[in-house]
Amino acid sequence: MGNLKKTVWIHKKKVYFLMGLTLILGLAIVAQAYVMTSIVDGVFLKKQTFSAVIPWLIALLLILFVRSSMDYISKRIGVLIASDVKGDTRKKLLKKYVSNSVQLAEKGQTGEKVSMLLDGVDEMDSFYSQFIPQVMQSIFVPILMLIVISTQHMNSGIILMVCAPFIPIYMIVIGIKTQKKAEEKLEKLASFSAKFLETLQGLVTIKLFAQTIRQKEELEKSSVSFRDTTLEILKIAFTQSFAIELISMLSIGIVALELAIQIIIYESLSFFTAFLILILVPEFYSSLKELGVTFHNGRSSMGAAKKVLEVFDEEDEPTIWGVQIFPEWEVPPTIQLNQVNFTYANTNFQLESVTASFFPKQKIAIVGASGAGKTTLLHLIAGMITPEKGAIYINQEELTKYTEFSWLKKISYISQNPYIFSGTIAENIAMGTTDEVGMEAIKAAAQLAGIASLIEPLENGFETRIGEAGRGLSSGEKQRVSIARAFLKKPHIVLLDEPTRGLDLATEKILQQSIQKLNETATVITVAHRLHTIKNADQILFLENGKLLAVGTHESLLKISPAYKELVMIQKRRSQK
Ligand SMILES: Nc1ncnc2c1ncn2[C@@H]1O[C@H](COP(=O)(O)OP(=O)(O)OP(=O)(O)O)[C@@H](O)[C@H]1O
């Protein structure tokens, strides 16, 4: 609740304005009751003519106009606060997801995050747009009514003071239950969305492993569980409306009885006062009853807000980048890893004290068994994750002194499965650089990546749509699009995560030639499995279980590291098969 209050107090001015409006609204309600009583008293008891009550009727119209205007404006302000808070929250969530994208992508499911960003934030709406304005109305208006009623007739005031507290007490008890259920509902919605998206993404795997029926059952279970929680919340809402209605009806009945006794039996009360009170008492309860309805939505909304705000409390360690910009280099920089350590949260894996230096235009191969930490090391060099201890130096300056953007401009990262966006081939290649590039440059990059000959015969050539909205690409073709992106960018450092793994020899050869070409102007750091890539490297980093066992050339490592020799033997046997 603390964090939620803070989000409201950011809009302090609007909140004060809302308070002012509510006070005017309360006064308008009292004035309306007074004018209506005067008209009824004038016409029925004092037998006044129609023309005598015309000024009262005009006043009544004016008051009704003021009352509905105040009501409209206060709701409008609530909507404005809600839209500001939702906008800010979405921006903050996106910033968190973007600034820490690599760790967050690995943590939790994508669908869960999408659901939080869209549905979770939307659910927060009614807290600001309805609950806050209604809470103000339901505090100021009943207090004002109570003061007026008590000054007119103390007994009626006492009846209200005794009966009315049952409504907020009941709402608090129910509200706590609703909030818990609302949190549960959002969790279930997030889990359902995550499951749904995961099913869509893994549809082919699910079909191939004949898991369709099981997956369908799981989705159904998740969806039914979400439906049940939603229905439980509705059940609470209906019970709440019934109980509040009952309390207010009883209380109004008691007041009416008391007024009748005072007028008829004791003759101690005027008709004017009794009628005024009879009009004001339902208004008193109407504000409280409306709070009941919005209170229910508000608590649901608070549950959602709590879940969303919890995301901000989750600890993460995004890379803190500096403000310096890398200068233009003639040749690639020297890269030094100094005692670099890294651990993933909740795992036993640790990359321990990796120290190495990479010199301009060298070919570096990172080798080791599966799970040794090769990709992790590549991610560290790319700046996607930050060393826990130790540091990375670029031309003797710590990498994190520079801006992330200026570092990303210097490198190209080619992963095992590069992402192809929905769009044309040309657009996909062009995203390799942030500069404006023409079709000629795109074609030249495709030529160097060895993919131009595949694209040109297509009916629409470079304008052929690929990705989700168009035709698919093979792994080798995707790799080549990715390498074309690198040629367009002209980076000083190329990071490759086993780009030729699983490709046929002909495609591998084309890719090797392209990488060789990139190496003419850039340092190439490759996570390598193929003996060919390993043998040709100027420097090999041999990792085992997160430890850097040895660094050197192929020949030197064969001499000094039996484990490396064993790895090479396995590779040889595999390539001979
Ligand atoms: N995001 C993550 N969160 C937690 N643990 C992770 C994460 N990514 C990788 N790991 C773990 O860290 C270890 C090293 O992973 P890494 O991907 O760096 O190995 P690798 O040598 O590249 O393996 P492979 O050759 O199979 O790709 C593994 O045990 C892996 O399970």
UniProtKB/TrEMBL annotation:
NCBIfam families according to UniProt: CydD
InterPro entries in the cross-refs: AAA+_ATPase, ABC1_TM_dom, ABC1_TM_sf, ABC_transporter-like_ATP-bd, ABC_transporter-like_CS, ABC_transptr_CydD, P-loop_NTPase, Type_1_exporter
Organism of this sequence: Niallia hominis
Location of the ABC transmembrane type-1 domain: 17-300
Domain ABC transporter as annotated: residue spans: 335-570
Keywords tagged on the record: ATP-binding, Membrane, Nucleotide-binding, Transmembrane, Transmembrane helix
Name of the protein in its database record: Thiol reductant ABC exporter subunit CydD
Main location: membrane
Pfam families noted in UniProt: ABC_membrane, ABC_tran
